[in-house]
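Good morning N.,

You mentioned wanting to compare the apo and holo forms, so I went ahead and generated the holo version with pyridoxal-5'-phosphate. This is what I fed in:
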Amino acid sequence: MKPLGPIPSGYGVIDGQLAIAGRKATDLVAEAGSTPLFVYSRQHLERRVAELRAAMPERLALHYAVKANPFVPVLQAMAGLVDGFDIASGGELGIVQSAGIDPARISFAGPGKRVDELEAAIVAGATINLESEGESVRALEVGSRLGIAPRLAIRVNPDFDLKGSGMKMGGGAKQFGVDAERVPAMARQVIASGAEWRGFHIFAGSQALDAAAIIETQAQTLHLAARLADESGAALPHCNLGGGFGIPYFPGDAPVDLAAIGSALGEAFAVLPDSLRDTAFCIELGRYLVGESGVYLTRIVDRKLSHGEVFLIVDGGLHHQLAASGNFGTVVRRNYPVAIASRFDAPTEEAASVVGCLCTPLDRLADKAGFPRADVGDLVAVFCAGAYGASASPAQFLGHGPAAEILV
Ligand SMILES: Cc1ncc(COP(=O)(O)O)c(C=O)c1O
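and this is what came out, ligand included:
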């Protein structure tokens, strides 16, 4: 049998079933009307942000990276919890605005922004994290055409990456940001243009579980920000220190040590150089804030034996759970935390593979893992589904369409 990833804390059992926010899985499916279904828990979101705030220095603002989960009720819940929202497209700008969130709280990073996206962001009053000198020219042109001073920051391509991170977004040639040595000249031009200067965005990687690596990256980021501010010859109003806090998905993964990161950052803030003394700092996190709050529920529609192996075939699959299937940035496929939701407290009886309903061998949500005996009609839960599930899976693939989503 292959091991499963660790089930996040905060889930319970009622009548033998998985309970999410105190409600039975079957009741949640009945309320939503169908499977497959993403269930997100407001309690989880609140607890997560509270824990983070308690561990981090008060001076550090908290931004939510919308790409992790742009479901409008989740955004509305986050609006009361975090300080800012980071978006990556004009589409996300529209979604955040439709959630009633003040665009002044939004910053927009991402390569390849179209002119119409720049225009929408400038009209809304969002901060644009410029990814290149060309983008700076286009943003300033849009601003002068509209008679609006755009809010502009520069996304820096740092000379380092976040060690041990699942996705490295700095260090060497990258399509993200502007190489550090070219940033001071660009900053001077942006400031001279009359734009509202918003500072730097420095994002070195994501999905790191090693606190020491995050601490080292934050120290390097502060050092780089101070040097670039000095060389730009202007005060730095704001600095986005990136994020990268990961969550345990796989067997053997352990949660990131928040207290260690918070105390190191507090110590760093206590001895900031003059150029950063009045700077406002934030971090931007996606999966850390929402990942463990979500469960994907899917129903078994067939049970088969093939060459002695049990296959539980569900009505969902990689079209909603690309990451759990092992096809979103992982090199070696390992099992996410998966359970039989309708027999949550039953003992393990057999090895089975949970596979989706797509016509591809890639569609595997659990591989030869230990489960209680489950049959047609039982519900399967995939945990850690609150981030990069619905938002990062090919919902149209093979025509099954998107899953339902609810926040409880
Ligand atoms: C610029 C930027 N911000 C935030 C994130 C969110 O990362 P995570 O969900 O791992 O916190 C990403 C992820 O790729 C990113 O590229």
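Residues 12-40+292-407 form a domain with the Lyase, Ornithine Decarboxylase; Chain A, domain 1 fold (CATH 2.40.37.10).

Happy to go through it together on a call whenever suits you.

Best,
F.
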